[in-house]
Amino acid sequence: MASFSSFQPEADSAVPTLPESHSGIPPYLLEKATRAKNAVFAGRTKQVNERLRLPVIPQGISRDDFLKALEELKGELGGENVEVNDKPLKDGWYMEHPNTHDMMTILDEEEFVAGAVVYPGSTEEVVKVVKWANRWLIPVFPISMGRNLGYGGAAPRVRGSVTIDLGKRMNKILDINAQDYTCLVEPGVSFYGLHEELGKRGLREHMWVDTPDLGGGSIIGNTVDRGVGYTPYGDHWACHSGLEVVLPTGEVIRTGMGALTHDGENTWGVFPYGFGPFSDGIFSQSNFGIVTKMGMTLMPNPGGHESFMYTFPNEEDLGPLMEIIRPLRISTILENVAQLRHVTQTVIHSAAANTPVGDHTWAYYGMSYGPPHIRAYKLAIIDAEFRKIPGCRKIDPATLPEDEYFWSRDRIASGTPDIHELRWVNWAPNGAHIAFSPVSPIRGPDATKLFQLGKRLHEQYGIDFMPAFCVGLREMHLIVEIVFDRDDPEEKKRALGCLRDMVDEAAREGYGEYRTHLVLMDQVAGTYAWNDGALGKFNERLKDALDPNGILAPGRCGIWGRRYRGRGWEMGKGSEGRSEGDGVGGRVV
Ligand code: ADP
């Protein structure tokens, strides 16, 4: 590692921990995180480049006015809370991630970059920032933790936007209610952080945090982007309850029961709908508001849990297996988001025979919940069904060493955040990743069709194929992570070409993405085009009504305000390398 330190100064620093840093690692994962960091930097050859495209000023404002505007904002937030982004772009790594750009960039690294980063300390200060943005017509881009890796990280869609880093100063757990199993959090609370706090309050034995594969993201950021976890509470958006939102023009609203004038907390977390239209939906995967507080439900400890793993020998087992999984999952005999991984995701096929798991093509990871007699009932059904596939093997956990991936799945599915999942990103030097993640029914023919589609296009572009099926409840996402060397322009071009083809081909077959990276947002939004793009037009009407000057996260999820429309800002096939359009329109209000 030391040999790289001359150009990667961050390689040798200690991994930040909780509670010193709101985005730090919990002490129980420090050693593992340090090993992960060493592995990341050992494979890194990419240099920190001098900035070649400075200054970064958003279109529509002069450099002098931009700097004047930032000076004005310093007067409102304090000088230390406004930073111009003119230093070298350090990629860091998962635990020391940048808030200035996409550390896993698939374009030129100067393309999706912030012009400045600001750190509000309260909802009132967020209001000041959006009013300021309207005064100066400067695009702003909110992040909670900015660890949205694989989807653009902390980067804004519009070059030069001012990133509002909410997490740094707004990171309180405002409430944990041990009777209702609910909590109320600010943007800078990570899954690691909430899990630590439950421990401190002696509540961890009683209630669990549902955690994604990696626990460093914020609960709010992950939830508004509709991320998932692996306990039976896996659908985070479905588990949230009530928001506080700063609208792009500076009004503050609370939704659900939070809107009661009685100070709301009593029922904020226990009933998501309140009265009247359910407005929360427009604040997820959108650019209609900045979420400053959110109610979230916690899962009661079910009184026991047990991970299980089955392997299946042949690629063709996929179809019949899906037919078995569907009724088990819909009836919640399979209780959590089920993962079916292709062998290449963990080790190359030829090496599988030498691993503790043994040779296989598909591996199923699941967990059964509840006291032993309840688990035994469900596990017997699962066993009988899975064994209908010839060659199916149940893996005995006692044969698996401590660092086996199985145990990471075991922790995550029982509410203990981990950092294990980072490993496969090191598949390539300077490893970065972007996912293709279409939704389909849990049916054999659909799974097989998507698998073949992905395999064919990966072969065509010369890319390793790493598919995993994640079965939600009535649907599944195929998650295909493309791992690429972000210092290799040719490899990035192939990765993006493959992603764009997969999105288009899958959409033609009726499969749409559930979430996507900045670079694919316009294309993916464009696939939801029924009735002459009626949904997109509806989103534009909402955007123009709520954000007439279009200052909030322009282009996020393919939604552009009227000042940007018709000026070539959308990205798609043929626009590669260019993320900007040709100017912006004038003030609307
Ligand atoms: P994470 O918290 O998982 O690290 P981010 O903070 O990067 O994720 O958030 C994911 C995406 O969701 C961001 O790119 C941003 O567009 C959006 N987002 C995050 N936090 C908020 C928020 N508080 N209000 C509105 N949008 C948000």
TrEMBL record:
Q: Which organism is it from?
A: Apiosordaria backusii
Q: Does the keyword DNA repair apply?
A: no
What Pfam families does its record include?
FAD-oxidase_C (PF02913), FAD_binding_4 (PF01565)
> Coiled-coil region(s) at which residues?
none
Q: Which Gene Ontology cellular-component terms appear in the entry?
A: mitochondrion
Q: Which PANTHER family match?
A: ARYL-ALCOHOL OXIDASE VANILLYL-ALCOHOL OXIDASE (AFU_ORTHOLOGUE AFUA_3G09500)-RELATED, D-LACTATE DEHYDROGENASE
Disordered: annotated span? 1-23
Name of the molecule in the record: FAD-binding PCMH-type domain-containing protein
Give cofactor(s), names only.
FAD
Q: Care to name a GO molecular-function term for this sequence? A: D-lactate dehydrogenase (cytochrome) activity
- Domain called FAD-binding PCMH-type: residue spans: 110-301
Keywords in alphabetical order, please: FAD, Flavoprotein, Oxidoreductase
- GO aspect biological process, one term: lactate catabolic process
Q: Which Gene3D superfamilies match?
A: 3.30.465.10, FAD-linked oxidases, C-terminal domain, Uridine Diphospho-n-acetylenolpyruvylglucosamine Reductase, domain 2, Vanillyl-alcohol Oxidase, Chain A, domain 4
- Keyword Protease among record annotations: no
